[in-house]
Amino acid sequence: MTVALPKGRIANEVLAIFKKIFNEDFEFESRKLILKKAGFTFLNVRNWDVATYVEKQAADIGVVGFDVITELRSDVLELLDLGLGKCRISVGGIKGDESYKKKSEIVVASKLKNIAKEYFSKKGIPAQIIKLNGSIELAPLVGLSDVIVDIVETGSTLKENGLEEKEVIMHSSARLIANKNSFLTKKPQILELVERIREANGA
Ligand code: PRP
Q: Where are the domains of the chain?
């Protein structure tokens, strides 16, 4: 079974769960992108690419943030909420400044373009979304946007830049996902693994 993991902290936390289940060390060797162990092939991929690997069946299962699958509208099966990487997707803006609420069209900077677009359109608020790739908090500080839609974990990035959380759009956490076809052909193995992960993770 092939498992796509998002590079970094979440991958390490998931590999620690596998260690607990199989009583063996699971660790990517430095710079290696593939780890084969105990009948599994783990792929070390970028967070934003996990869903693509799973959707295209380059991996049978994977771990990815709920925010990412929502933004990408990925056609995958969601198997389990791992409760890792908890965060919110929120509207943020300059502290104490509510003037964006009175504008006929607001300018929103975000990495999560679809989520931002859908949120404001459901509220009936005309919004122009500017897609950025990082350091989103900078945009309202230099007048590039009125507000941002971004990931908030501890809230310290907002705070340290004189911004505040204005509206919570959604909550997110890491999900175990599966390719739809793999789920059909490998159902017993996948379900057994989900059960073991659930137990080991205390979820
Ligand atoms: C994310 C997010 C915020 C920050 C939130 O950025 O975009 O900037 O983390 O975390 P906090 O609430 O705990 O401060 P990331 O580190 O992924 O970098 P980015 O600027 O490339 O988006």
A: 2-85+173-201, 87-172
Ligand 1 atom showing the smallest separation from residue 156 Cα: 14
CATH number of 2-85+173-201: 3.40.190.10
pTM above 0.70, yes or no: yes
Ligand 1 binding residues, C-beta < 6 A:
134-137, 150-157
Q: How far is the CA of 185 from the centre of ligand 1 (A)?
A: 38
Residue 159 CA: nearest ligand 1 atom is 14
**Residue 9 burial (CB count, 10 A):** 11
| pLDDT tens-place string over residues 40-84 | 999 999 999 999 999 999 999 999 999 999 999 999 999 999 999
Q: Could you identify the atom of ligand 1 that is nearest to the CA of residue 160?
A: 14
Query: Which CATH number is 87-172's, of 3.40.190.10, 3.10.310.40, 3.30.470.20, 1.10.150.120?
Result: 3.40.190.10
